Automatic annotation (TrEMBL):
<keyword id="KW-0813">Transport</keyword>
<keyword id="KW-0479">Metal-binding</keyword>
<keyword id="KW-0249">Electron transport</keyword>
<dbReference type="InterPro" id="IPR009056">
    <property type="entry name" value="Cyt_c-like_dom"/>
</dbReference>
<dbReference type="GO" id="GO:0009055">
    <property type="term" value="F:electron transfer activity"/>
</dbReference>
<dbReference type="GO" id="GO:0020037">
    <property type="term" value="F:heme binding"/>
</dbReference>
<keyword id="KW-0732">Signal</keyword>
<dbReference type="GO" id="GO:0046872">
    <property type="term" value="F:metal ion binding"/>
</dbReference>
<keyword id="KW-0408">Iron</keyword>
<dbReference type="InterPro" id="IPR051811">
    <property type="entry name" value="Cytochrome_c550/c551-like"/>
</dbReference>
<dbReference type="InterPro" id="IPR036909">
    <property type="entry name" value="Cyt_c-like_dom_sf"/>
</dbReference>
<dbReference type="Pfam" id="PF00034">
    <property type="entry name" value="Cytochrom_C"/>
</dbReference>
<protein>
    <submittedName>
        <fullName>Cytochrome c</fullName>
    </submittedName>
</protein>
<feature type="signal peptide">
    <location>
        <begin position="1"/>
        <end position="19"/>
    </location>
</feature>
<feature type="domain" description="Cytochrome c">
    <location>
        <begin position="198"/>
        <end position="286"/>
    </location>
</feature>
<keyword id="KW-0349">Heme</keyword>
Amino acid sequence: MKKILYAVSLSLLSVAVLAACQNTGTTAQSANPQSAQSVPSAAEPVLQISTGKEQQGWTVTTLMSHPARQTVQTPDDPAYHQPRQWQAVPLHALLPSLKAGGHTQFKASDGFVATIADDTLLSAATPWIAFETAAKPWPALGAGKPSAGPFYLIWTDAARGNISQEQWPYQIASVAPVQSLTERFPALLPAASAPLKEQALRGLQAYSRHCSVCHTLNKAGDASIGPDLNLPHNPTEYFQEKMLRQLIRDPASVRTWPQQSMPGFSKEVLSEAELDDLLVYLKQMAAQR
Ligand code: HEC
């Protein structure tokens, strides 16, 4: 595949991307302007995709002319909850460096950060970068809110890959290889001496998948949407267990306000056993700060 490196325009988004890239150890400046073959217009948002060795900026225009672009249909998705048709390029065509055992991080412009195992990205389900075109804008995510665009990670055959709602990051600004969450943030690990260590470790898995995309714990993690779940105090300390369970299942059934944004986790998404494990993990972490 022909590699095109773009000089990054000084649009607001690029500035945001630059800031985001500082955390991943790569910078947008590593795209060598000398080798730029085409420069996107300043108004066009850029999706930065890094293989770890090199970084490439994609715009809606360049994705539209990608040879692997297709019209893709999904029966349902966490942003719109309805059958939809998308213009999309398979992630594999944009990021050929995916490898078993690796992890890939998707950073959204709103502070949501999903780390997805490459094994999942290479599983029976197929991930695509869907992009929003000016000709067919996507609906708003709610009154007064923007759409899921311009770049959205969607899946075909999602059920076959057991893909959860947090693995559909939207408003993506950058994609890059990273080490696993606990390799980067050992402060998330339950202590070797934890009384229910096995269960706490299973709870950590549920936490990594479903909660770390928005929360930090012990200030460890990538995301910045929800409050830290251990500092200064842990919700297992200030919520009664019954209410904490209810809050995780359906936050609005416990308290409600207009800007509320945490999604609920149904039994289909987070089984009763997984919720038990998650609470064991959170309680353990209350003893580790
Ligand atoms: C999409 C982002 C998102 C995800 C995913 C998410 N949360 Fe939240 N969470 C929030 C936000 C934002 C708040 C603040 C309240 C609000 O706006 O809903 C919050 C609030 C909370 C609170 C209340 C804290 C307090 O002191 O009021 C708890 C407890 C909590 N989350 C636990 C979890 C757990 C456990 C998970 C994983 C199963 C999770 N959250 C997943 C965004 C998220």
